[in-house]
Design brief:
CATH architecture of one domain: Alpha-Beta Barrel
Order of helices and strands: HHHEHEHHEHEHHHEHEHEHEHHEHHHHH
Radius of gyration: 21 Å
Strand content: 5-15%
CATH topology of one domain: TIM Barrel
Strand order of the largest sheet: 1-2-3-4-5-6-7-8
Structural class: alpha/beta
Distance between the termini: 45 Å
Number of helices: 20
Number of strands: 9
CATH superfamily of one domain: Aldolase class I
């Protein structure tokens, strides 16, 4: 097993030398080049408010250079909390004897998805715990088919336990977009302590999951670590090292990097962590992800409070969940035994309004997945700044549809104003496409 080694800045490094090196690194990121692991290490160990202010500003500029001002929104749909693992930090663990277990039927999953579609969502992340008999590939295929056939949801991503190549092929053939799986922590002793039993206790099986997914045909993969389980500097560096290995081997790395931060979970059995990540460090992590892999989407979930999320919208985040519930049947019944506590309780409508207030563009676009812009092709388009123009048009078209069909009276005026402001800069027949939407045409995209 190969252990990760964290490069550090030598104590002899001077402030002036750090500043020159930092500016070289930031210039490289602005040129949309992937950073080396030594450069990532430099950022991880950087100190000084003035230098970090430069990093945050560059992170914003890189994000806008790749994606423009759009922020994509989605919702998780939890299918099951029946689990055979005993992850000490999770409310779904088998050792939580007080948990109220629920495995959604096809009909219940469809009802939840229909409710979310009725609120305006177009992409969902299906989330399931690990129980091969109750929520394995047969179950996922049926759920995905039912949602596509009976709702207006346009793309389904999947966060599920690691699978064999054959099962991944079935998942891909079912129409799943991104396959998402987090290593949780790359620190092997900590991993083994926190995952004492169940299939998830096999570190290597989880570590190699993305190779199997890619072999099965997935070009869009989502990766991350659960920040706070171990020293964030180690785990952030290791995640980027893992991403860079995939990039070298396959021509693309993760489509998204998620930044979940450890939150309390009822019955988790994990009383706290000496590795808790502060808000200031969390902001640094998001910026490091953005600069290290400029083309990747950086995902911030509702684990974080509203005020902090709003800040991150401006400094590197490009995808966010909104209006989330983290328990099976949670949207219909606000049920018990959630996976973790939610920080940002705002609805989709409220988060879209907040994004617009910041001068950004809320987007419900799903076009790239369905137009074959994935994997290496997506990375090349992003690094060549071609994705930005597509993102702008599709963001506005999906926003126009939301305004017509779903927006509350309170938010509609604000969103309409943002539409008008951005459309004036866009061209490409955007106003003609708006008219098509006003006339009832849906799913207009480029």
């Amino acid at each position: 097993m190969r252990f990760f080694c964290l490069h550090t800045i030598t104590k002899s490094s001077s402030a002036s030398a750090d500043k020159f090196l930092l500016r070289d690194i930031l210039a490289k990121s602005l040129n949309l080049q992937t950073l080396s692991l030594r450069e990532v290490s430099f950022l991880i160990n950087l100190s000084g408010k003035d230098l970090w202010d430069e990093v945050f500003d560059t992170s914003r500029r890189v994000k806008e250079k790749v994606y423009g001002k759009r922020i994509v929104l989605f919702a998780p749909l939890y299918l099951s909390n029946e689990c055979i693992n005993d992850c000490l930090y999770c409310g779904f663990r088998i050792g939580n004897k007080k948990a109220k277990r629920k495995n959604l039927s096809i009909e219940e999953a469809l009802e939840e998805a229909s409710l979310l579609a009725g609120r305006g969502y177009k992409r969902l992340l299906l989330v399931t715990s690990e129980h091969p008999k109750l929520s394995g590939i047969d179950y996922l295929e049926k759920i995905i088919s039912a949602i596509y056939e009976n709702t207006d949801i346009r793309i389904l991503h999947v966060n599920a336990a690691p699978m064999s190549v054959e099962d991944f092929k079935r998942l891909k053939a079912s129409g799943a977009g991104v396959y998402q799986c987090f290593q949780e922590t790359y620190h092997i002793p900590t991993y083994r302590t926190l995952h004492p039993s169940g299939p998830k206790s096999d570190y290597n099986w989880r570590l190699n999951v993305m190779d199997r997914a890619i072999e099965a045909g997935f070009e869009d993969i989502g990766m991350g670590v659960l920040l706070g389980l171990y020293d964030w500097k180690w785990d952030v560096w290791a995640l980027i090292a893992h991403s860079n290995r995939l990039l070298r081997k396959y021509g693309f790395g993760p489509h998204t990097l998620s930044a979940p931060r450890l939150q309390p979970a009822e019955g988790s059995g994990f009383t706290g962590s000496k590795y808790a990540v502060s808000d200031d460090d969390f902001k640094k992590i998001v910026a490091i992800y953005r600069l290290s892999l400029p083309y990747a989407g950086i995902v911030i979930t509702t684990r974080e409070p509203a005020k902090l999320r709003d800040e991150l919208f401006l400094t590197g985040a490009s995808q966010v969940s909104a209006g989330s519930r983290t328990s099976p049947l949670g949207y219909l019944n606000d049920s018990d035994t959630a996976q973790f506590e939610i920080g940002d309780k705002r609805s989709l409508d409220e988060v879209m309004g907040a994004i617009a207030n910041l001068g950004l563009v809320p987007s419900l676009c799903t076009a790239c997945y369905r137009e074959g812009r994935s994997g290496e092709k997506f990375r090349e388009l992003a690094e060549g700044q071609a994705i930005k123009n597509l993102c702008r048009q599709n963001a506005l078209l999906s926003l126009k549809e939301y305004v017509e069909d779903y927006a509350s009276d309170k938010v509609r005026e604000l969103l309409t104003k943002r539409l008008e402001e951005e459309a004036e800069k866009t061209g490409n027949g955007i106003f003609e496409k708006f008219k098509l939407i006003e006339q009832g045409k849906r799913d207009v995209h480029v």
